[in-house]
Amino acid sequence: MTPDLAQIQPERKRAAVELSRAGVTFGQAGARVQALQPTDLRIDEGEFLALVGPSGCGKSTILKLVSGLTRPSEGAVIVGGREVAAKALRIGMAFQNPTLLPWLTIEKNVMLPLKIVRPFRHDFARKKRGEYRDRVHAALADVGLQGFANHYPWQLSGGMLQRANLCRALIHDPSLLLLDEPFGALDQFTREELWGTMQDLWIKRRPTVILVTHDLKEAGFLGTRICVMSARPGRIIDDSPVTFPRPRSIEMTFQPEFTALNQRLRERIISARQEVTA
Ligand SMILES: Nc1ncnc2c1ncn2[C@@H]1O[C@H](COP(=O)(O)OP(=O)(O)OP(=O)(O)O)[C@@H](O)[C@H]1O
Protein backbone atom coordinates (compact mmCIF):
# COMPACT_ATOMS: atom_id res chain seq x y z
CA MET A 1 0.00 0.00 0.00
CA THR A 2 1.32 3.47 -0.90
CA PRO A 3 1.90 5.46 2.25
CA ASP A 4 0.06 8.75 2.52
CA LEU A 5 2.81 11.31 1.93
CA ALA A 6 0.85 14.05 3.65
CA GLN A 7 0.99 12.01 6.86
CA ILE A 8 4.74 11.47 6.63
CA GLN A 9 5.90 14.88 5.48
CA PRO A 10 4.67 17.89 7.39
CA GLU A 11 2.99 20.40 5.09
CA ARG A 12 5.59 22.82 3.74
CA LYS A 13 4.09 26.26 3.61
CA ARG A 14 4.95 28.62 0.80
CA ALA A 15 7.02 31.70 1.52
CA ALA A 16 5.07 34.93 1.07
CA VAL A 17 8.14 37.08 1.74
CA GLU A 18 11.83 36.27 1.73
CA LEU A 19 14.65 38.60 2.60
CA SER A 20 17.90 37.02 1.51
CA ARG A 21 20.89 38.83 2.99
CA ALA A 22 18.89 42.00 2.31
CA GLY A 23 20.52 45.13 3.71
CA VAL A 24 19.88 48.86 3.42
CA THR A 25 22.44 51.62 3.83
CA PHE A 26 21.50 55.27 3.45
CA GLY A 27 23.80 58.21 2.75
CA GLN A 28 27.23 58.70 1.23
CA ALA A 29 30.69 57.78 2.52
CA GLY A 30 31.39 59.53 5.79
CA ALA A 31 27.70 59.81 6.71
CA ARG A 32 26.43 56.32 6.12
CA VAL A 33 23.57 54.85 8.17
CA GLN A 34 23.15 51.08 8.04
CA ALA A 35 19.37 51.03 8.51
CA LEU A 36 19.32 47.24 8.10
CA GLN A 37 22.30 44.94 8.14
CA PRO A 38 22.19 41.97 5.71
CA THR A 39 19.15 40.07 6.97
CA ASP A 40 17.54 36.72 6.25
CA LEU A 41 13.83 36.58 7.00
CA ARG A 42 11.22 34.17 5.67
CA ILE A 43 7.53 34.84 6.25
CA ASP A 44 5.16 32.05 5.27
CA GLU A 45 1.81 32.62 3.60
CA GLY A 46 -0.85 33.40 6.18
CA GLU A 47 1.61 34.30 8.95
CA PHE A 48 1.00 37.36 11.12
CA LEU A 49 4.44 38.75 11.89
CA ALA A 50 4.80 41.50 14.47
CA LEU A 51 7.99 43.57 14.27
CA VAL A 52 8.91 45.32 17.50
CA GLY A 53 11.94 47.25 18.69
CA PRO A 54 13.18 50.68 19.69
CA SER A 55 12.94 53.72 17.48
CA GLY A 56 15.33 53.68 14.52
CA CYS A 57 15.97 49.91 14.51
CA GLY A 58 14.77 49.42 10.93
CA LYS A 59 11.17 48.25 11.30
CA SER A 60 9.79 50.67 8.70
CA THR A 61 12.78 49.92 6.48
CA ILE A 62 11.67 46.27 6.31
CA LEU A 63 8.12 47.37 5.38
CA LYS A 64 9.50 49.67 2.69
CA LEU A 65 11.69 46.89 1.30
CA VAL A 66 8.75 44.50 1.09
CA SER A 67 6.48 47.10 -0.53
CA GLY A 68 9.19 48.06 -3.03
CA LEU A 69 9.38 51.68 -1.81
CA THR A 70 13.03 51.13 -0.88
CA ARG A 71 15.50 49.02 -2.87
CA PRO A 72 17.96 46.84 -0.95
CA SER A 73 21.56 48.10 -1.08
CA GLU A 74 22.57 44.44 -1.06
CA GLY A 75 20.89 41.05 -1.15
CA ALA A 76 17.40 40.33 -2.47
CA VAL A 77 13.76 40.74 -1.47
CA ILE A 78 11.38 38.15 -2.87
CA VAL A 79 7.62 38.62 -2.50
CA GLY A 80 5.17 36.07 -3.88
CA GLY A 81 8.07 34.19 -5.51
CA ARG A 82 9.42 37.17 -7.49
CA GLU A 83 11.90 39.94 -6.83
CA VAL A 84 9.92 42.93 -5.62
CA ALA A 85 10.83 45.32 -8.41
CA ALA A 86 9.99 42.71 -11.06
CA LYS A 87 6.23 42.76 -10.67
CA ALA A 88 3.40 44.98 -9.44
CA LEU A 89 2.25 43.55 -6.12
CA ARG A 90 -1.22 43.48 -4.65
CA ILE A 91 -0.54 44.87 -1.20
CA GLY A 92 -2.79 46.50 1.39
CA MET A 93 -1.35 49.15 3.68
CA ALA A 94 -2.47 51.04 6.77
CA PHE A 95 -0.56 53.63 8.77
CA GLN A 96 -0.90 55.34 12.13
CA ASN A 97 -2.96 58.20 10.69
CA PRO A 98 -5.85 57.00 8.56
CA THR A 99 -5.19 58.55 5.17
CA LEU A 100 -8.80 58.84 4.04
CA LEU A 101 -9.60 61.55 1.50
CA PRO A 102 -11.75 64.19 3.24
CA TRP A 103 -13.83 65.06 0.18
CA LEU A 104 -15.00 61.49 -0.40
CA THR A 105 -17.59 59.53 1.58
CA ILE A 106 -16.48 56.46 3.54
CA GLU A 107 -17.96 54.23 0.81
CA LYS A 108 -15.96 56.01 -1.90
CA ASN A 109 -12.80 56.01 0.18
CA VAL A 110 -13.02 52.28 0.80
CA MET A 111 -13.81 51.67 -2.86
CA LEU A 112 -10.67 53.47 -4.08
CA PRO A 113 -8.40 50.41 -4.44
CA LEU A 114 -11.05 48.78 -6.65
CA LYS A 115 -10.83 51.82 -8.88
CA ILE A 116 -7.04 51.80 -9.04
CA VAL A 117 -5.69 48.27 -8.59
CA ARG A 118 -5.64 45.58 -11.26
CA PRO A 119 -7.64 43.50 -12.08
CA PHE A 120 -10.50 45.35 -10.38
CA ARG A 121 -10.04 48.69 -12.14
CA HIS A 122 -10.79 47.04 -15.45
CA ASP A 123 -14.37 46.36 -14.34
CA PHE A 124 -14.82 49.39 -12.12
CA ALA A 125 -17.16 51.44 -14.29
CA ARG A 126 -19.40 48.42 -14.87
CA LYS A 127 -19.49 47.05 -11.32
CA LYS A 128 -19.20 49.97 -8.96
CA ARG A 129 -22.93 50.56 -8.66
CA GLY A 130 -23.65 46.92 -7.91
CA GLU A 131 -21.13 44.26 -7.06
CA TYR A 132 -18.37 46.58 -5.79
CA ARG A 133 -20.82 48.62 -3.75
CA ASP A 134 -22.13 45.44 -2.08
CA ARG A 135 -18.56 44.37 -1.42
CA VAL A 136 -17.76 47.69 0.28
CA HIS A 137 -20.94 47.57 2.38
CA ALA A 138 -20.19 43.99 3.49
CA ALA A 139 -16.63 45.02 4.43
CA LEU A 140 -17.92 48.00 6.43
CA ALA A 141 -20.38 45.71 8.22
CA ASP A 142 -17.50 43.34 9.08
CA VAL A 143 -15.80 46.10 11.06
CA GLY A 144 -18.97 47.48 12.67
CA LEU A 145 -19.43 50.46 10.34
CA GLN A 146 -22.77 49.53 8.81
CA GLY A 147 -24.80 52.70 8.34
CA PHE A 148 -21.74 54.95 7.90
CA ALA A 149 -21.10 54.45 4.17
CA ASN A 150 -22.44 57.90 3.28
CA HIS A 151 -20.68 59.76 6.07
CA TYR A 152 -17.56 61.83 5.45
CA PRO A 153 -14.31 61.13 7.33
CA TRP A 154 -14.71 64.25 9.52
CA GLN A 155 -17.98 62.83 10.85
CA LEU A 156 -16.24 59.72 12.32
CA SER A 157 -14.22 59.17 15.51
CA GLY A 158 -10.54 58.16 15.38
CA GLY A 159 -11.39 54.50 16.02
CA MET A 160 -14.06 54.49 13.32
CA LEU A 161 -11.65 56.08 10.85
CA GLN A 162 -9.08 53.39 11.53
CA ARG A 163 -11.76 50.71 11.00
CA ALA A 164 -12.58 52.27 7.63
CA ASN A 165 -8.86 52.43 6.89
CA LEU A 166 -8.50 48.68 7.55
CA CYS A 167 -11.46 48.05 5.25
CA ARG A 168 -9.78 50.03 2.50
CA ALA A 169 -6.51 48.15 3.03
CA LEU A 170 -8.31 44.82 2.58
CA ILE A 171 -11.05 45.56 0.03
CA HIS A 172 -9.00 44.35 -2.97
CA ASP A 173 -8.13 41.07 -1.21
CA PRO A 174 -4.40 41.69 -0.95
CA SER A 175 -2.35 38.63 -0.16
CA LEU A 176 0.01 40.83 1.83
CA LEU A 177 -1.01 43.43 4.39
CA LEU A 178 1.57 45.92 5.71
CA LEU A 179 0.59 47.75 8.89
CA ASP A 180 2.77 50.53 10.31
CA GLU A 181 1.52 51.25 13.85
CA PRO A 182 -2.10 51.48 12.73
CA PHE A 183 -3.45 51.57 16.30
CA GLY A 184 -0.74 53.79 17.79
CA ALA A 185 -2.79 56.99 17.90
CA LEU A 186 -5.86 55.45 19.59
CA ASP A 187 -6.77 55.38 23.28
CA GLN A 188 -6.17 52.06 25.07
CA PHE A 189 -9.79 50.81 24.98
CA THR A 190 -10.38 51.71 21.35
CA ARG A 191 -7.04 50.11 20.50
CA GLU A 192 -8.02 46.86 22.20
CA GLU A 193 -11.34 46.84 20.34
CA LEU A 194 -9.48 47.29 17.07
CA TRP A 195 -7.16 44.36 17.90
CA GLY A 196 -10.28 42.21 18.07
CA THR A 197 -11.48 43.57 14.72
CA MET A 198 -8.07 42.99 13.13
CA GLN A 199 -7.92 39.45 14.52
CA ASP A 200 -11.40 38.67 13.10
CA LEU A 201 -10.39 39.99 9.67
CA TRP A 202 -7.20 37.92 9.71
CA ILE A 203 -9.00 34.73 10.77
CA LYS A 204 -11.60 35.24 8.04
CA ARG A 205 -9.25 36.11 5.16
CA ARG A 206 -5.82 34.86 6.27
CA PRO A 207 -3.64 37.41 4.49
CA THR A 208 0.06 37.45 5.31
CA VAL A 209 0.53 40.40 7.66
CA ILE A 210 3.58 42.38 8.75
CA LEU A 211 2.68 44.64 11.66
CA VAL A 212 5.11 47.24 12.99
CA THR A 213 4.29 48.19 16.55
CA HIS A 214 5.86 49.56 19.72
CA ASP A 215 3.29 47.71 21.81
CA LEU A 216 4.37 44.25 22.99
CA LYS A 217 0.86 43.42 24.18
CA GLU A 218 -0.47 44.20 20.71
CA ALA A 219 2.27 42.06 19.14
CA GLY A 220 1.41 39.12 21.42
CA PHE A 221 -2.34 39.48 20.93
CA LEU A 222 -2.20 39.61 17.14
CA GLY A 223 0.99 37.89 16.02
CA THR A 224 1.71 34.30 15.10
CA ARG A 225 5.33 35.33 15.52
CA ILE A 226 7.26 38.28 16.94
CA CYS A 227 10.61 39.53 15.68
CA VAL A 228 12.48 41.89 17.98
CA MET A 229 14.88 44.32 16.30
CA SER A 230 17.80 46.33 17.55
CA ALA A 231 19.42 49.48 16.12
CA ARG A 232 22.86 50.50 14.85
CA PRO A 233 22.94 48.51 12.77
CA GLY A 234 19.28 47.55 12.38
CA ARG A 235 18.95 43.77 12.84
CA ILE A 236 16.65 41.03 14.12
CA ILE A 237 17.80 39.83 17.56
CA ASP A 238 14.91 37.58 18.56
CA ASP A 239 12.37 35.56 16.58
CA SER A 240 9.66 33.90 18.69
CA PRO A 241 6.50 32.02 17.70
CA VAL A 242 3.29 33.00 19.49
CA THR A 243 1.13 29.95 19.93
CA PHE A 244 -1.76 31.09 22.15
CA PRO A 245 -5.02 29.66 20.79
CA ARG A 246 -7.40 31.78 18.73
CA PRO A 247 -9.57 33.68 18.97
CA ARG A 248 -7.51 35.50 21.58
CA SER A 249 -9.15 37.72 24.15
CA ILE A 250 -7.99 40.68 26.21
CA GLU A 251 -8.37 38.48 29.31
CA MET A 252 -5.70 36.18 27.82
CA THR A 253 -3.22 39.05 27.99
CA PHE A 254 -3.38 38.86 31.79
CA GLN A 255 -2.49 35.15 31.89
CA PRO A 256 0.96 34.20 33.29
CA GLU A 257 2.18 32.67 29.96
CA PHE A 258 1.33 35.87 28.12
CA THR A 259 2.93 38.18 30.65
CA ALA A 260 6.04 35.93 30.74
CA LEU A 261 6.45 36.27 26.95
CA ASN A 262 5.88 40.00 27.24
CA GLN A 263 8.44 40.32 30.00
CA ARG A 264 11.09 38.28 28.15
CA LEU A 265 10.74 40.38 24.99
CA ARG A 266 10.74 43.58 27.04
CA GLU A 267 14.05 42.58 28.59
CA ARG A 268 15.49 41.86 25.11
CA ILE A 269 14.49 45.34 23.96
CA ILE A 270 15.84 47.04 27.08
CA SER A 271 19.23 45.32 26.77
CA ALA A 272 19.34 46.14 23.03
CA ARG A 273 18.68 49.81 23.84
CA GLN A 274 21.44 49.77 26.43
CA GLU A 275 23.87 48.29 23.87
CA VAL A 276 23.08 51.16 21.49
CA THR A 277 23.48 53.94 24.07
CA ALA A 278 26.55 52.37 25.81
N1 LIG B 1 15.69 58.02 3.83
C1 LIG B 1 16.58 57.89 4.82
N2 LIG B 1 17.78 58.51 4.79
C2 LIG B 1 18.69 58.37 5.78
N3 LIG B 1 18.49 57.61 6.87
C3 LIG B 1 17.31 56.98 6.98
C4 LIG B 1 16.29 57.07 5.97
N4 LIG B 1 15.22 56.33 6.37
C5 LIG B 1 15.57 55.79 7.54
N5 LIG B 1 16.81 56.17 7.91
C6 LIG B 1 17.52 55.77 9.13
O1 LIG B 1 17.53 54.34 9.16
C7 LIG B 1 17.33 53.87 10.48
C8 LIG B 1 16.11 52.95 10.52
O2 LIG B 1 14.94 53.72 10.26
P1 LIG B 1 13.46 53.13 10.33
O3 LIG B 1 12.54 54.24 9.94
O4 LIG B 1 13.39 51.88 9.56
O5 LIG B 1 13.33 52.80 11.88
P2 LIG B 1 12.03 52.37 12.73
O6 LIG B 1 12.45 51.19 13.54
O7 LIG B 1 10.86 52.21 11.85
O8 LIG B 1 11.85 53.65 13.67
P3 LIG B 1 10.52 54.26 14.37
O9 LIG B 1 10.04 53.23 15.33
O10 LIG B 1 11.02 55.49 15.05
O11 LIG B 1 9.54 54.56 13.27
C9 LIG B 1 17.20 55.10 11.37
O12 LIG B 1 18.46 55.37 11.95
C10 LIG B 1 16.80 56.19 10.40
O13 LIG B 1 17.23 57.46 10.86
UniProtKB/TrEMBL annotation:
Q: Which source organism does the UniProt entry give? A: Paracoccus hibiscisoli
The identity of this protein, by name, is ABC transporter ATP-binding protein
Asked if Nucleotide-binding is a keyword of the record, the answer is yes
The taxonomy runs: Bacteria, Pseudomonadati, Pseudomonadota, Alphaproteobacteria, Rhodobacterales
Top-level taxon in the UniProt lineage: Bacteria
Membrane-traversing stretches: none
Q: Which GO terms describe its molecular function?
A: ATP binding; ATP hydrolysis activity
Question: Which keywords describe this protein according to UniProt?
Answer: ATP-binding, Nucleotide-binding, Transport
Spell out the Pfam families in the cross-references: ABC_tran (PF00005)
Q: Which PROSITE patterns match?
A: ABC_TRANSPORTER_1 (PS00211), ABC_TRANSPORTER_2 (PS50893)
Is Transport found in the keyword set? yes
Family membership, please give it. Belongs to the ABC transporter superfamily.
